[in-house]
Amino acid sequence: MPLRIVMMGTGEFALPAFRGLLDSPHAVAALVTQPDRTGRGHHQHVNPLKELAQASGIPVLQPEKASSPDSLEQLQALAADLYVVAAYGQILSTKLLQIPRLGAINVHGSLLPRYRGAAPIQYAVWHGETRTGVTIFQIVRELDAGPVLGLVETDIGPHETSGELHDRLAELAVPLTLSVLDEIESGRAAPAPQDASLATFAPRIPKEAGSIDWSQTAEQIGWHVRAMQPWPMPFTFLHRDGTEPLRLLIPEVRPVTDFSGNLGASSTPGSILPAPPGQLFVATGNGPIEIIQIQPSGKRAMGAAEFLRGNPLPPNSHLISK
Global pTM? Predict the structure, then answer.
């Protein structure tokens, strides 16, 4: 018999799974999503899940706190069998989790128990992982620690950014979610406990984490640059004699394996190195890295050659974190 489901989600990672639920035989009783937020310029942030719910005639609840007495009363009245949670953005209380007959499941963008927390996709890229996936687990009070109901694995592309990986994992979550729901509905679900000794954590990433540390290895900087996109974006500051530091976003880099120049005293991490015309090489903790794309503050992204035509780099020019 189809399940009666409440979807709890806010971020775009949840959108494909929500769309899949609406197209499934299961009945979606309501969407619970975060309250509307006003951004800069007093513009309302678009909530794609809310828009989809409204277009589909699904009731939308937006409690400031999902575990407040008023919210719990509303949820109780929905008489759902199961809550499906993905990128919702709030901690759920024990009282809330006890309302649905079958509890609540979470759609998480990592291979648990690795990368429990708010930013699993970014941390996987940041740490140079070559493989990741989506895990669906039964929600318990401890963060992302509940028994696993299903998972799907995928390779991380060598040039893939967090944003690109996010979108791929969100789509991979759809058939996995529907498969897990079928198993729950039929009574065939077999929750498997996580090995807590293997747990790693991926807390929310602050804006300042985008700052590039040129003392790291070229490989680590490459991971970092990919991980920080689309937010908070990898950045650095160009220092040149006689001018104010220039803030730069660095969307793309490439470790240099065929450098033929003499590093010498210029090998201090962040130093601009000799390079062929139109190329921009920077010293790191273990050798050169090439900046492929660069975006000066307030301007569009451009190739290194275009940037260098408008921004000559005198001797002693260097990049630092601030």
Answer: 0.95
